[in-house]
Amino acid sequence: MMCFEEWSNCVLSNCGQYDCTPAERNRRAVGDFRLRRRHGIDIAEMDCRIDRIDRQRSGIRSDDSEYLFLLMQRAGEARVIHNGAAEVLAAGDCLLMDSTRTAQIRFDGRDASFTSVHLPRALCLEGRPAAPLTGRRIPARHPLLAGLGALLAEAPEADDAADYLFDFVALLFRGDGPAPGFRDRAGRFRHACETIERHLTDTEFSIERLSALVNLSRRQLQRDFSDHGTSFTQVLAQRRARLTADHLRRAAQMNRRPVISDLAFRAGFGDLSHFNRVFRQHYAMAPGDYYASCRAVH
Predict the structure, then answer these.
(1) How many CB atoms lie within 10 A of CB 151?
(2) 12, 20, 113, 290: least buried by Cβ within 10 Å?
(3) Are residues 15 and 114 in the same domain?
């Protein structure tokens, strides 16, 4: 647990000229500050019990680097005043903050934990017709937040992961204008596949539905799938088969005997013959044999 001066110096060293104010009569044991890196991006994990953090014009003039800070509240509450808005972040909420604008983050002496993702501002704005919307809360229930959390947690080996992260943030924090797109086909295709994975259990999920969700035409989607040597139907079936296989493997680990047809229907398959054919195609064995092989391992 850091004292106030140590915690504040970590903020200054890693985030820039942000002025921290301690809670009244409390300068000892105010919190922790941990820094990690994913995809070349610094991520600060902060726990604190202070009054507030201020970004003033003098601090803006002092800093050489400019960032968009993605604030993700993990516990407690924070009141953020930024870009003409005042928002209260509860656990699971997030907000984008621009280091070129003044800001205030208030904790009022209460315990709080949050993550700050340091996104280089120029890289986030590169090639975009409009800047992402800052100062507006994204609630924890937003369907894209689970994907964002997984992206920030994944291993940093992929060369294009940082670009995908910038595109993802632009999509999440788009304003009232047209939805921003991904700047390369790989990012666009990855987003389409991840969107499919979030809707596997929808038995009526179609390429038309996917088109509406990712803001791309059916024809563009078909081209993207074709460029990757596959199709919407193939990707959907393969992901559903993988979901079923995951359930079978987990059941084997827990020494449970699942009803395979129930798992197939749960994964979105509407026809058992089709399910068995797809599963054999991807795993070179029947679902029952796959379960037995998992049991043999465990």
Answers:
(1) 17
(2) 12
(3) yes
Q: What are the tokens at 231?
A: 């199709």
Domain residue limits at 25: 4-183
Q: What is the CATH number of the domain that holds 222?
A: 1.10.10.60
Chain segment 289-298, per-residue pLDDT in tens = 999 999 887 6
Contact indicator for 190, 151 with CB cutoff of 8 Å: no
Residues 136 and 217 reside in one and the same domain: no
Q: What is the pTM (predicted TM-score) of this model?
A: 0.72
Q: What is the pLDDT of residues 12-23, one digit of tens each?
A: 999 999 999 999
Q: Are residues 76 and 138 in the same domain?
A: yes
229's CB contacts (< 8 A; 6+ apart) are none
Phi then psi for residue 25, to 5 deg, are: 60, 25
Largest CA distance in the chain: 70
Residue spans of alpha helices (H) in the chain: 4-14, 57-62, 121-125, 145-153, 161-172, 185-197, 207-214, 218-227, 232-253, 260-266, 272-283, 287-297
DSSP state of 138: B
Helix, strand or coil, per DSSP, at residue 244: helix
